[in-house]
Design goal:
Elements: E1 5-6, H1 9-12, H2 17-24, E2 28-31, E3 38-49, E4 76-81, E5 85-91, E6 99-110, H3 112-119, H4 132-139, E7 155-159, E8 169-172, E9 189-192
Antiparallel strand pairs: 1-7, 2-3, 2-7, 3-6, 3-9, 4-5, 5-6, 8-9
Helix pairs in contact: 3-4
The structure holds a DNA duplex.
DNA sequence: ATGTCGATTTGCT
DNA sequence: GCAAATCGACATA
C-alpha cells in the first residue's frame, strides 16, 4: 500500500491558503508511521490567513500561540481551543507570511479500532473523526507536535492519487467566526460533498 | 490585576 | 436547546 507519496514542501508554499485547503481534500494524514499507527483521509478543511482575514489568529500580529503560523510552510500549527480541544492546522504560505489550513474532518483509513478506543465511541460512529477537536483525539495528535514538520515529522500528509473534483467540492462559510466582521462571510470552508465524516453543522 | 471570549464538544434537560 | 469544561490572548484599569 505504498503508492502514497508524502506531499512535498512546495505543495504548502503557496501565497493563498484557500488553494491549499481545496487541494488538501482527499489527502491522507498519517500519524505514528510504523507501530500501530493510523491514517485518515481529509474531507473537510478551512483556510485562514492574509491581511484581511479578521478570523485568523494572526490578524492582530504575532503571539506565542500563533507563532507557528509565521513559520515554515509544511509544518503543524496545533493550538488549544476553549482550554480543552486541540486543533490541527497545516501551515502554508512562505515563511513569515501567516496562513494555515484547519483540518475539520477526516475519514478513517487505517487504525480505526485504535481511534475508536481513544474516542470511546463504536468504530462505526461518525463522531469518531468528524470535527476539528475530535479528530486530534482519534489520531493521537499531541500539543508537543506544534511546529513539527509535516514532511518528515510525527504527522505526515500523503497523496495516494485520489482526486476530489470541483463538482464534489462543497464551499461554505467558515464555522464559529461570527465575531470576525466581513471575514465571517468568506467562503473558505471546503468539504467533500455528501461525505459523512464532515463535521456536523451546528448553525 | 481582573474580566471576557474563543477556529468546540458533550451530556443533560 | 443549553451550559459546562478550562486556558491563553487580549482589553481595560
Amino acid at each position: 500500500m505504498s503508492l502514497a507519496k508524502i506531499l512535498p514542501r512546495s505543495f504548502y508554499e503557496r501565497e493563498n491558503p484557500v488553494e491549499v485547503a481545496i487541494d488538501l481534500l482527499g489527502k491522507i494524514v498519517r500519524v505514528d508511521q510504523g507501530r500501530g499507527g493510523c491514517a485518515a483521509r481529509i474531507v473537510e478543511a478551512e483556510a485562514y490567513g492574509g491581511l484581511k482575514d479578521r478570523a485568523s489568529h494572526a490578524w492582530r500580529g504575532r503571539t506565542p500561540r500563533n507563532e507557528s503560523m509565521f513559520g515554515r510552510p509544511g509544518t503543524a500549527y496545533i493550538y488549544l481551543c476553549y482550554g480543552i480541544h486541540r486543533m490541527f492546522n497545516v501551515v502554508t504560505a512562505p515563511k513569515d507570511v501567516p496562513a494555515a489550513v484547519l483540518i475539520r474532518g477526516v475519514e478513517p483509513i487505517e487504525g480505526r479500532a485504535l481511534m475508536a478506543r481513544r474516542r470511546k465511541w463504536p468504530p462505526s460512529d461518525f463522531r469518531l473523526t468528524a470535527g476539528p477537536g475530535v479528530l486530534t483525539v482519534a489520531l493521537g495528535i499531541r500539543m508537543e507536535w506544534d511546529r513539527t514538520d509535516l514532511v518528515c515529522g510525527p504527522i505526515r500528509i500523503e497523496d495516494d492519487g485520489v482526486r476530489i473534483s470541483s463538482a464534489q467540492t462543497q464551499r461554505r462559510p467558515r464555522v464559529g467566526v461570527n465575531y470576525a466582521g466581513p471575514a465571517a462571510e468568506f467562503r473558505w470552508r471546503f468539504s467533500v460533498r455528501g461525505n459523512p465524516w464532515v463535521s456536523r453543522s451546528r448553525s
